[in-house]
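To whoever is on call:

I kicked off a structure prediction for a single chain this morning and the downstream step that reads the tokens threw a length-mismatch warning. I double-checked the sequence; it's 140 residues and nothing unusual in it as far as I can see. Pasting both halves so you can look.
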Amino acid sequence: MTYAGAASRLTEAAAAALDPRRWGYQPKVDGAYALALTDGRGFLRRLLSRNGLPFGAADCADLIGIQTGHPDAALIGEIEAHTPAGVAAREARGFAQIHLYDALRLSGADCARLPYADRLARPHRERSIAECGARAPWAP
């Protein structure tokens, strides 16, 4: 079982006592839900809110056009926008960040029906391979 919010409400000792084969957590990022869509070369082309509407330029102009490394992807995350803490983080840094934590589609392959642990692991595994310089995992 994976529950992203459980560990944030636990003490460090209690979180450390959780069985990692059954529990996992991810840090909470304060912002707005975002669906990030990339083109065939892995460049971020659209950021959509939970209701399917595009974010305004003030929220995501720094992000459109960056290369995520994942071609033809639909990635879910939190963008630093629409909340006081998210806006403050963006303003303090001078640019917005999006924290990606789920994949619905990678390299054109549907991931939506996979278990969450698998969807979470795929982008991280691909990024690790690319960072190690072994190869670009999205290349043929």
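Update from on-call: the warning came from a stale cache, not from the record. Cleared it. Sanity check on the structure: Residues 1-8 have pLDDT under 50 and may be disordered.
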